[in-house]
C-alpha cells in the first residue's frame, strides 16, 4: 500500500508540474506579445467570389474564417464574400489586448473600408460572438448594410443568467466565466487535444480552434459576449431586415431568448432549425445558404 501511495503521489506531482508548465508558458506567451497597434496589425481575411451582392462573414468564439467554407458553391455564384479572422483568432494577430467589442469592430471596419464592402449592398453574417459583433456593426453603420443574418445569437441579460444556463449544459463555459476563468483558459492547449473534440465540430474547425490565446478567448467571452446589451445597442435599427437562424437544441444560445429579442424588430424573421445545436451551420450549411438566397 505504501508503494502504491508513493506511485500515486509521484504521478500527482508530475501532473501538477505539467499543469504549472502549461499555465506558465501560456501566460508568458501573452505577456511577451506586443501591445495592439491597429495601424500595423491588420486582420487576416479572404475574398471569395465575384457576384453582384456582398456578404461579410464573422465567425464565433475560438473560430476562424474557415468555419464558413462549406458548400460555398451554393452562395458564391451570386455573391462576393469577405471572410475575416477576428483579432486574436485564426491567423489574425494575437496581441496583448483586452479584445473589447470596440476594438474588434474597429479592426473589422478597416477591412470593410479597404475592400469596399460599405456601399449599402452588403449583408453581414455572424455566428455566436460574430453574431453580436455583426448586429453591433449594423447598429453603428446602418447605411453600410442591407441587413444581417445571425446564427446562434447569445442573448445575455446578466452574468448570473449565463452562468446559471451554462451550469445546466456546459461545464466548459461555466468554468470560463468563473473566478478561475483566466486560469482555466490558460489550460486551453489541453482541452484542444483531439480527445476532447466535440462531436459537432469538423476536424478543420477544431484544428483552427487551437489558434487563439487564453487572453483572446477569456476577454472575448467576458468583455464582449457577457457585457454587450444588444437590446440597448440595437434600439435605433428596429426597421432593419434581420434573419435570425437558431437551433432548436442550442444550449449555448437558448432559442427562447432569441425569440423574445427578435420580436423587438419590425422587419425580422426567425427560423428555428429542428435538431440544430450551436454549430448548426456545420451540419446545415446548404439550408443556411438557401435561406440567405431566399430572404435577401
Which key phrases capture this entry?
single chain; 12 helices; alpha/beta; Rossmann fold; 296 residues; 7 strands; 14% strand
Return the CATH architecture. 3-Layer(aba) Sandwich
Helix and strand composition category: alpha/beta
- Level of helix content? 40-55%
Radius of gyration from the alpha-carbon trace, in angstroms = 20 Å
**Assigned CATH class:** Alpha Beta
Shape: globular
> Going across the major beta sheet, what is the strand order?
1-3-2-4-5-6-7
Please identify the oligomeric state: single chain
Strand-residue fraction?
5-15%
Terminal Cα span: 70 Å
The sequence of SSEs as H and E is: HEEEHEHEHHHHHHHEHEH
Explain this structure.
- The protein is an alpha/beta fold and 296 residues long.
- It has one domain (45-295): 3-Layer(aba) Sandwich (Rossmann fold).
- 43% of the residues lie in helices and 14% in strands.
- The protein has a 7-stranded mixed sheet, sandwiched between helices.
- Helix 11 (255-262) links the parallel strand 6 and strand 7 (268-273).
- It is globular.
- The model has no long low-confidence stretch (mean pLDDT 86).
Question: In terms of topology, how is this protein built?
Answer:
Elements: H1 2-31, E1 45-48, E2 53-58, E3 79-84, H2 101-114, E4 122-127, H3 129-140, E5 145-151, H4 159-169, H5 171-176, H6 181-185, H7 188-191, H8 203-208, H9 214-225, H10 230-233, E6 241-247, H11 255-262, E7 268-273, H12 280-295
Parallel strand pairs: 2-3, 2-4, 4-5, 5-6, 6-7
Antiparallel strand pairs: 1-3
Amino acid at each position: 500500500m505504501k508503494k502504491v501511495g508513493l506511485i500515486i503521489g509521484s504521478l500527482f506531482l508530475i501532473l501538477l508540474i505539467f499543469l504549472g508548465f502549461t499555465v506558465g508558458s501560456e501566460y508568458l506567451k501573452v505577456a511577451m506579445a506586443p501591445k495592439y497597434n491597429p495601424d500595423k496589425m491588420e486582420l487576416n481575411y479572404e475574398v471569395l467570389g465575384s457576384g453582384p451582392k456582398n456578404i461579410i462573414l464573422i465567425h464565433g468564439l475560438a473560430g476562424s474564417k474557415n468555419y464558413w467554407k462549406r458548400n460555398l458553391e451554393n452562395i458564391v455564384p451570386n455573391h462576393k464574400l469577405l471572410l475575416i479572422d477576428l483579432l486574436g483568432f485564426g491567423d489574425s494577430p494575437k496581441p496583448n489586448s483586452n479584445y473589447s467589442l470596440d476594438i474588434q469592430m474597429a479592426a473589422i471596419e478597416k477591412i470593410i473600408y479597404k475592400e469596399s464592402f460599405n456601399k449599402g449592398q452588403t449583408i453581414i453574417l455572424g455566428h455566436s460572438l460574430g453574431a453580436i459583433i455583426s448586429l453591433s456593426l449594423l447598429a453603428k453603420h446602418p447605411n453600410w448594410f442591407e441587413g444581417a443574418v445571425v446564427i446562434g445569437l447569445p442573448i445575455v441579460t446578466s452574468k448570473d443568467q449565463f452562468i446559471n444556463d451554462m451550469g445546466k449544459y456546459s461545464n466548459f463555459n461555466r468554468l470560463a466565466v468563473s473566478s478561475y476563468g483566466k486560469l482555466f483558459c490558460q489550460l486551453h492547449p489541453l482541452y484542444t487535444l483531439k480527445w476532447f473534440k466535440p462531436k459537432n465540430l469538423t476536424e478543420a474547425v477544431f484544428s483552427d480552434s487551437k489558434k487563439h490565446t487564453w487572453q483572446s478567448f477569456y476577454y472575448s467571452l467576458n468583455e464582449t459576449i457577457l457585457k454587450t446589451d444588444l437590446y440597448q445597442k440595437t434600439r435605433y435599427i428596429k426597421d432593419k431586415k434581420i434573419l435570425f437562424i437558431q437551433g432548436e437544441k442550442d444550449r449555448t444560445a437558448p432559442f427562447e431568448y432569441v425569440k423574445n429579442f427578435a420580436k423587438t424588430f419590425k422587419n425580422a424573421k426567425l427560423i428555428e432549425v429542428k435538431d440544430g445545436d450551436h454549430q448548426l451551420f456545420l451540419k446545415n450549411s446548404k439550408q443556411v445558404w438557401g435561406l440567405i438566397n431566399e430572404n435577401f
